[in-house]
Hints:
By secondary structure, the protein is mainly beta. The chain has helices at residues 2-20, 273-281; strands spanning 28-35, 42-46, 50-60, 63-70, 74-80, 89-95, 102-104, 106-110, 113-118, 131-134, 143-146, 149-152, 154-159, 165-172, 175-176, 182-183, 186-187, 191-200, 205-212, 220-228, 234-237, 240-247, 251-258, 264-265.
Amino acid sequence: xxxxxxxxxxIIFFTISFVSGCGHQPQIIRHSYVKxxxxxxxxxxxxxxxxxxxKDYYVFKGYVKTVLRPTEDFTLTANAPSMLGLxxxxxxxxxxxxxxxxxxxxxxxxxxxxxDIIFPADINGNNIYGVLVDDSGNVKKNALHYKKHxxxxxxxxxxxxxxxxxxxxxxxxxxxxxxxxxxxxxxxxYINHELIYxxxxxxxxxxxxxEYTRGYDAKTAFYQNLTFEPKAKQxxxxxxxxxxxxxxxxxxxxxxxxxxxxxxxxxxGSDQGFEGIKSSRK
Length: 282
């Protein structure tokens, strides 16, 4: 019983590891800031208004996506190698003309012929076996892509035998990492943060720091009330340095002398990810 459970866990682990590597992996190329102020610019605001507001975001490199679509409803069955090499399993795949489409995640060459590799899900929802499709849309018989290798299969049957997979190519420009994207286990999307003037009294000058959830302008995720000396001529928060020209209970005249915010360009192929972005944010 314990051995069966161990094998089951191994199967799940390898399935997740392999499938997770199949999708398009976006490449972060830029981390940028959009600011509503200029360094050394004198501004006048009133209580409740923003001293500064910053949009903190990052951009993915555009990419080319190749999709293959079947010309007919089809089924594909074959004897497929077991993940643990214990025995062969029966692969059973179904697809539909007007519904199914499969992204080509890679290419491989067999006997001088170049094939796109697609990973249609089988009847159990697994997509660990790749099907090879040539440039004419024909499926290579008796072969599957498995764990980065081409393996020979038995009892390979494609119905109808003349079904083809038509290729469509889409070009995507550089795009903002938005709140609907999960990257490396982290939620994408920009962060807005701002400093708001809350007035002054005999005891303190009051400013509120407010940060919004990723991809939203109005949903507050975090805020902090900051207090400074009422006669301070300069205040600091994080890397922001703000020179105070005049402060009253209803008005603030100021300029931002530095902010420490620098756009970051990531070189192609570098694995900066979120850690690189966090370090550039400080």
